[in-house]
Amino acid sequence: MTSNGIFQILLFLAVLTALVRPMGVYLLKVYSGEKTFLDIVFKPVERLIYKFAMVVDPAKEMTWKQYGVAMLVFSLVSSLAVYAVQRLQYYLPLNPQGFAAPSEHSSFNTAVSFVTNTNWQGYSGETTMSYFTQMSSLALQNFLSAAVGMALAVVFIRGIARFETDKLGNFWVDLTRGTLYVLLPLSFLAAIFFVSQGVVQNFKAYDSAKLTDPFVVQVDKKDSEGNVIKDDAGENRKEDQAIPIQTIAQGPAASQLAIKMLGTNGGGFFNANSAHPFENPTPLSNFVQMLLIFLIPAGFTYTLGRMVRLPGHGWAVYGAMVFLFLAGTFTTYWAESRGNPLFPAAVDQAVVGGNLEGKEVRFGVANSALFAVVTTDASCGAVNSMHDSFTPLGGLVPLVNIQLGEVIFGGVGAGMYGILIMVILTVFIAGLMVGRTPEYLGKKIESYDVQMAMLYVLIFPLIILGFTAVSVLAPDLGLSSLANQGAHGLSEVLYAFTSGAGNNGSAFAGLSANTPWYNITLGFAMLFGRFFMIVPVLAIAGNLARKKQVPATLGTFPVNTVLFGVLLVSVVLIVGALTFFPALSLSPILEHFQMHAGQTF
Amino acid sequence: MLDLVFITLIIVVFLLALAYVAACEALKKGVQNQ
């Protein structure tokens, strides 16, 4: 680790912390329906939307069930629309490359991926999706799925803040205001900034350039009818193919990039995501991209404190998140800085800062490690380096970050309701320790709240470990598209389902996931990981809102102290460790020891 | 044909989620009656 790298990480945290309060205050105003400085622009648009959508009465608040049903119906319609646009893209406009429709299973996977805010991509953007599909479906869902997550976080906070009511707000109003007042203006500013840094934004057909130094690749040899020729051992015969031309992809990347980061979506316009020079050209664009990922989730901690009339609670939650974030970042940075011990001694890895495989030279080890932790702490999933190429311990941290439930800042909204579930468990455990009925901000935590919280906690590992187990036990389905065997191969499969269920979307690149098996099972993992976890969250919110206020006494556990923060961190780590340690010990942890014993995969 | 299969799959999962909402509410009533 270098002092320069450490300084950049701390600078990132300092800038983020400075933005927490202004972002939190703004979110509070937007979701409380208060006047904002953008009212002059967006208020007429908001009114028009409600007028156009005649079923929406913005003054009418919903119960948790009505809110949940509205959210599910909206997401169902969105999923079907994204599926249809992909399947019909050949006949739709803005398709200068003439791309055909993706396969049915790929379209299913992509549709649920973008609607669930996962943005797992089994396809390569620049060779699969038309500009129309990218803009009308994928970028649109980047906004809407993020706005849904934010709305749900606000509902949960309302459930905590309100007393003796079953009304939690109006889904359509929260969705509209989150999109109009938060995501759109910030994305617009960010897109302009990214264009200034060199990110492309156009509708041109792809350019091609004649290479001054053509290179040769090996491809499968085919006969005159296009069939692959096998040798005597049954292996595909290879032949050399010269590549004299480079295709340079174009498109409206900057606008999609902005919301990809701000909405913690993570789906790259280009296949290489934020490692692509047109999607992340400079160290400054890299810094701002990371900042955008954490901006709204960090701001929500301040919003929480203000809405529950205890600002110290918001800061205590923020402090717990920062502690876990720094622990992950420095562990990854340390692991990557040490490099790979299997390199010959003559190779001085310290010259380049450590393990540079799969990393962009212009970002280096520190900013690759920081980006990997930021994108997996949040449910973003954008990458500026290949997590598959990290050292085993360096790759362990992103995997663990997602498995902890993405509560370290987390996805926009999703991180907030995720950490609040952990807060409820923390208060419950603290209550058990002193033998009192647990209380949280003037409310008694009762059996139904804990049952729903445990449902939330248990569904997550059930999806991940269940699908992973079936995949590794099915050679023709799960193992056939693995690039690596052994512990590293297990990491690749485990990471895929962790990323899907956690609605993260990043990948250990060694797994070729664009197969019917992975497209369908990951599609289910994303759907269950999103909606089957949201329903218990809404149920808790509804139950909390109905409770009477209990006056605080000397025995009430304060939730604005360092002790609370320590207990919250402990609960997050213990729940995650107990659930996933056995699987992790067979994948990255085992791989670490095998690497030191000289074994690679 | 496969399009219909995947569209049906999406709809079924969302119907399950709607049933899940009802199940969570039923559980709440069950807990209150205890």
Number of strands of chain A: 4
Which structural class do the helices and strands of chain A define? mainly alpha
Helical content class of chain B? over 70%
How much β-strand is present in the residues of chain B? under 5%
The main pleated sheet of chain B reads as: none
Widest sheet: strand ordering of chain A: 1-2
- Tell me which oligomeric state these chains represent: heterodimer
Shape of chain A: globular
Number of helices of chain B: 1
Mean pLDDT of chain A: 91
Major sheet characteristics of chain A = 2 strands, antiparallel
Distance between the termini of chain A: 27 Å
Q: Percent of residues of chain A in helical segments?
A: 55-70%
Key features of this structure:
heterodimer, A: 601 residues, mainly alpha, two-stranded antiparallel sheet, 4 strands, 60% helix, 5% strand, globular, B: 34 residues, 1 helix
Describe the structure.
- The complex is a heterodimer of chains A (601) and B (34).
- With 601 residues, chain A is mainly α.
- Chain A has 19 helices and four strands.
- Chain A has helices spanning 3-32, 39-52, 64-87, 104-115, 125-128, 131-161, 171-197, 253-262, 283-307, 311-338, 364-377, 392-403, 414-434, 447-472, 475-479, 486-501, 516-545, 562-586, 588-596; strands at residues 207-220, 238-248, 439-440, 443-444.
- Chain A has a two-stranded antiparallel sheet with strand order 1-2. Chain A has a two-stranded antiparallel sheet with strand order 3-4.
- In chain A, strand 3 (439-440) and strand 4 (443-444) form a beta hairpin.
- The two termini of chain A are 27 Å apart.
- The model of chain A has no long low-confidence stretch (mean pLDDT 91).
- Chain B has one helix at residues 2-33.
- Chain B is mainly α.
- In chain B, 94% of the residues lie in helices and 0% in strands.
- Chain A binds chain B through residues 65, 68-69, 72-73, 75-76, 79-80, 83, 87, 104-105, 107-108, 111-112, 446-448, 451-452, 455, 523-524, 527-528, 531-532, 535-536, 538-539, 543, and chain B through 2-3, 5-7, 9-11, 13-14, 17-18, 20-21, 24-25, 27-28, 31-32.
